[in-house]
Structure formats: structure tokens, C-alpha cells
Amino acid sequence: MVMTTGLKDYSDVHFTRPDVAKAIVEHFRPHGTCYEPFKGDGAIYQFLPEGSFWTEIDEGRDFFEFDRKVDWIITNPPYSNLTDVMSRCFELSLHTVFLVPQSKIYSSAPRMKLVRDVAGIREKLNFGAGRELGFNTGFPFSAFHFQRGYSGSVVESWIGQPQTMTGERVDFVSYGELIHRWNNTVNDAGIRQSNGRKVPVSFWSTFLNIPGSTHRELMSGTSRRQNFNPLLARMIELTDMLPTTAFLNAVRLKLPDYESNR
User: Fold this and answer.
1) Final residue in a domain of this structure, among 129, 158, 187
2) How many DSSP H helices and E strands does the chain contain?
3) In DSSP terms, which residues pair with 125 in a beta bridge?
4) Strand, helix or coil at 11?
């Protein structure tokens, strides 16, 4: 019989299974500059984009001495100083993903204050009991996606369930981040205009079939609109879920339209 261990004295050393790490990274799709602050045996780090940063105290790299700003942090953090870890991660990164028991966030007033004042919960990817993930505890675990400055609703997801296109993952902040990620993907794949030049950011207004003025407004982050268009948000989510080959083929099909309208 598997015994459930309480969290009060639960060890700070709790390694993540590779399949769990892979599922988290594939779900959140981190991009830009990424960082694993508690690398351990590298379960999460191995799935991050090439060139990502890491620290691990057992290898002489102290998380609290790392001072570079990054776009994404994904980690299975220690619990003994979790409030300090959260605060520091929120300073360093726009996006932070923690694989932790749900109670480690919701049962702490200081941590909930950080969520309220610094980085809101954008999404909670639920896994179930810790022992199902290889941890010696029965408490429910989730991968919490925090975003600095976010104060909207929380998307509830379950591992193993298809991602639904609700549009809730797209807003005025994430639009620009996503467009730049798409643009980098296209140009890194070697797709070019007929004149040999790289695909510009302005292309995406044609790709998404929205006015150029709307696209520029969204990219600038200065939109006067109170709500993001839900139909556009769902279309963006659908596009972002495409396999890379299908996505690049869709770009190739739209490029002639963009060039003919220039």
C-alpha cells in the first residue's frame, strides 16, 4: 500500500519524471530566452529550447546569484523557501511555470499576495495526485503558469485532454509575443519573399486577415479596445496548435497575397 506523505517535511529534492517534464514543456511552448533555475538531473531542461540557461546548487550555480532577465522559467522548485523563490522568479521572468502541489500556492497568504500584486495565474495545468507523477505524496499537483502583470481569468486544463480553443490564452500582451515567435519560426525555416527578403512582421495582418492598422495597434500594446476579439483569439489559438509543417505551408500559401497587396 502506498502511503501518503504530508508536505510539511517533504524533501526539497523531488525529481521530475522525464515524461511529465516533456508534457509540461510541450503544453506551454516556451520561447525566447528560457531558464531552468533548479535543473536537478535535467528532466525539464532537456526539453527547453537550445541555449537555455540553468542553475543547480549541487553543481555550483546558485539560483539567487542568477541576475539575467528571461522570457520563461519552467521548473519544479524547492518548497522550503518557495515564497522567496517565487518572488525572485517573478522579478527575472515574464512567464513562470511551477510544478507544485496546489496547496503550496493557495494555502500561503504571502504567495497569494505575490499572485495578486506581481504575477497572476494565467493557466493551471492539472496532473492529479503526486504519487501518479512519481512523488511520494498524494496531494494534487498542477503546473501553474504565472505571468507578470496579468490579472485576468485562470484557464483550467487537464493533462491528457485536448487543448480547447477558448481564446482565453490570447490577449493584448500575448499577441505581440506570439507574432514575434511565429515570425522567428518562419524566418529560421528559411522562408523568404520573392525578392529574397525575410518575412516581415507586417505579413501577419494578411495571414490573419485583419486590417494593417489593427495589427499595428495590437503589436504596439496601446490598443484602446477593452476586450480582445474572441473570434480572432480562437483563430490564433487554432493556428498556434498546428504542427510546424502545416503552419509553414500555410505561411507559404499566404505570402503571394501579402506581396500582391504591397
Assistant:
1) 158
2) 9, 7
3) 143, 157
4) coil
Q: pTM of the entire structure?
A: 0.67
Is 44's pLDDT higher than 90? yes
Q: Per the structure block, which three cell numbers stand in for 39?
A: 535543473
> 192 and 151 share a domain?
no
Structural domain of 197: 172-260
Q: Based on the domain organization, do 152 and 23 belong to the same domain?
A: yes
Cα angle vertex 155, ends 145, 31, to 5°?
A: 40
CB atoms within 10 A of CB 34: 24
73's grid cell? 522559467
Going by C-alpha positions, the residue among 244, 183, 189, 253 that lies closest to residue 215 is 183
Cell numbers for 52, please give them.
Answer: 537555455
CA-to-CA distance for 224 and 217, rounded, in angstroms? 9
Answer whether residue 259 shows pLDDT above 50: yes
